[in-house]
Amino acid sequence: MVNCVVRNWEGDTVAEASIDLRVASEENAKHILHRAVTRQLNQARQGTASTKTRAEVRGGGRKPWRQKGTGRARAGSIRSPLWRGGGVIFGPKPRDYEVKMNRKERQLALRTALISRSEDLIVVEELAGKLPRPKTKDLLSAIARWGVEPDSKVLLIVDQRDDNVYLSARNVETIKLLAVNQLNVYDLLAADKIVTTAAALAQVQEVYGG
């Protein structure tokens, strides 16, 4: 079980929250997290890279010169891979990079990733309605009050979308805003600090705590 203090918009401690999730054993945690991250990065690949083989390159149907008597090396096509403008040997072709991983394994990896970042977890009382209008400066000031160092990569997890928060965060390169149902292993491990609302943390406990 991990206990966290809950801060309000001004950065004051107002309550406590806890999260209790089953995680992978110490000897298996590194392996399952590596599999989950590898799978996620592979899923993001388009797999559309394509080159043409000598059979697909236009031209080259006629033998460029006779077999013997010219003093030059034998050649059967100007589209040989040895020639400029020829086909490509063993070049990339469209493919699917998907890696299979069971749903229970994916959930275990997510729980393990979240608990492993518990020291960098910051819980805030509420974000929705705190910004009367989109204002990046106000959001950055609040994040600083919560104890996040400037230029830190921040993962901001919310339980509901607030347009003012979204618009204030979207043009900050070091902030990534996610809804609680978009949680993933890669973003949890890549962030320097994880800021989540108390309601979002409760939803994580409800969904993954069973």
What's a concise summary of this model?
The protein is an alpha/beta fold and 210 residues long. The protein has helices at residues 26-43, 103-116, 136-145, 163-169, 185-190, 198-208; strands at residues 2-7, 13-19, 121-124, 154-158, 175-179, 193-197.
Q: Overview of this structure, please?
A:
The model has no long low-confidence stretch (mean pLDDT 93). Helix 1 crosses helix 2 and helix 3 crosses helix 4 (163-169). The chain is built from six helices and six strands, in the order ββααβαβαβαβα. By secondary structure, it is of the alpha/beta class. The chain has a six-stranded mixed β-sheet, with helices on one face. The two termini are 14 Å apart.
Structural features:
210 residues, alpha/beta, six-stranded mixed β-sheet, 6 helices, 6 strands, 31% helix, elongated
